[in-house]
Design brief:
The chain is of the alpha/beta class and about 375 residues long. It has a single domain, classed as Glycosidases (TIM Barrel, Alpha-Beta Barrel). Helix content is about 40%, strand content about 15%. The protein is built from 14 helices and nine strands. An eight-stranded parallel β-barrel has the order 1-2-3-4-5-6-8-9, surrounded by five helices. Strand 7, helix 12 and strand 8 form a beta-alpha-beta unit. It is globular, with a radius of gyration of 20 Å.
Amino acid sequence: MKRRTFLAGAAAACSVPLTTSAVPFVPPEPDTSGPGLDARARKSGRHFGCAIKSSQIAKDPDFTAAVLREAGVIVEEYELKRHVTQAKPGKYDFSGADKLIDFAQKHGLGARGHTLVWYAANPPWLEAALPGASPRDREELLGGYIQTAMRRYAGRITEWDVVNEPVEPNQGRRDGMRAKNIWEQAFGDRYIDLAFQIARESDPRAKLFLTDFGLEHNSRRCAARRDAILELLEGALSRGVPIDALGVQGHLKPFREPFDERIFADFLDRVRGMGLGIAITEFDIADRGGPADVTARDAQVAAVGRAFLDVALDNPAMGSVLSWGLSDRYSWLSTYPDYRWPDGQKSRGLPLDADLKRKRLWAEMAAAFDAAPPRRASIGPQGVPA
């Protein structure tokens, strides 16, 4: 890759875990009036987007304005998860997702669907019904939901996370597949094949993603997860499963695990070599464990964010980059036990701070988009733009 030599030097400081001490260099304050992140991403043929909730756009006009300034794509943070949309058997509630998709259409934004098949966030009735169901009923419990959701939003949601988080090597399987998974227990590995086949039939024009986390860092944990994902993809594609792209979630934890640009670049190259598209689908940076000084911590978070995105955007298969949230005002990192600060301060792992101001992370993301090589859309193995 033509930028790899430069990137290796730029990311060298991220090849070891970041420290809690202050850094000597403080970058300049970010531009507060220039184009948003999506406008910058579009220059190289990509998009930037973020996860949001319908309640946020209903109740927070300043946040809504920030979304419209920065994002070209939205994804539902939780309102297309099945425990929300089908809390009771045979009864659907897409009201929250409808509000988000209507918002996207009104303002000319793209939309992703998250998520159709996941081991988590399922309604209790579904978990109870699967074990005793007949083979035909099990397939209806899997496929009927995919058909209902995808047909409802056909032409409005153009990308779907069809299967989310299918691997977990620490659960003991040799191939690294997630064993504690209601779908795996009901179908075996073929649940992935079925899900993608039904998704393709439900909306042939939609781009179909398999997504997972823990693919980014230079650690034993992430190495095992990368190996499992690559084995899964190779096997599925050899069987003709219509997977169009891999979604790399991009939940970074730089104060716990190191980031190595060559390892991550090599992984992305292997995925691209399979003919798949790639996207960053849930980008954020857990800052717990970083320097107590906010300025120093912001600088380190911004540095690793830039290194990560430079590598990602250097790959021609990399399309959109979506962050899991836009502002620290509404970050899941501030509530999740592993990542929230014990003293109650908000996590600072998103492009905008809690006051909706652009931070140093925003500035480095903008610079990464500005420096990204042009991307020419290609056609994936299933005839869908990659």
